[in-house]
Predict the structure.
Amino acid sequence: MNLKRNYFVVIAGLQILLFSSFVFSKTTVGIVYNTKITFYKQIIDILKEEVNKQVDCSFVEIQQKGKKNKLISTIIDTMPDFLVCFGDDAAKAGSATDIPGIFALVSDPQKIGVIFKDGYPVDRLAGYYWQIAPDKLLTFIYKIDPLKTNLGIIYSNSSATFFKDFNEAAKDYSYNVISRKVKKSSEVLKAFNIMNRKRVDFLFGYADPIVYNRKNIANAISLAKKNLVSFIGFAPSMTAQGALVSFYVNEQTLGEQNAELLVSIINGTEASGIQTKWIEKFNFSVNLKAAKTLKMDIPEEILQDATEVIKN
């Protein structure tokens, strides 16, 4: 009789132990990224802080090394409950594991096979497009000068999705979009020259690794100055180089935005049902010296909202 009672006590104890370990075990988030890119690390630190304000998580950093299949195996062996994948290669590997989570800072998630054409995830990774929402940019440009209607944009396969949405948004303002597609970086300078000959009012720069490497950025701004074209940049350093305005998203905003999306998935939102969206919260800097050269008056309301104003 005592043996029988002891047996049930042991079984009950095991059940309590298993239940408590299930209930009280921490959620594990695997962060997959290239450790050589310090920009990722800054965002990761902010993301961790924001997530832990709402959910009790432990984080494990998975370094991106070797080929895709090896990275997939490393992720699976680590056994995280959720994933945060920074960059194209990490997102492709994470998507192949069927572990829910988010992707971040991916050049074109549709092109690399992480999302469908309608913006919904192919597997279980949700995220944001890297660029700022085209309609938000165009609304801003319209406020600067509603009479200038010729917009120039150079794009590649890496930014085809952005160009498509940019083109559609431009129709709402009756803008004339003058575009040039390039396949490699060496074609960009020629494309800039063609843009300038076609008398564009604004030349848009945005995050495309083929179109805008360091050398091409300097050439684009230099040519824009020479031809009195308003260059729109995507980093504060570009405004300092002579761009009229630059729109950008800082590390704090990226960390907070991605943390919010991750927390919603940890709390039960199915990642496969979250449509990819453009970034809508951004910072911007204005170069008044460039505006003077272009004989443009920047509205006071824009200057008041600017993150930075360069006066000379």
Remarks:
- Residues 16-24 have pLDDT under 50 and may be disordered.
- The chain has twelve helices and 13 strands.
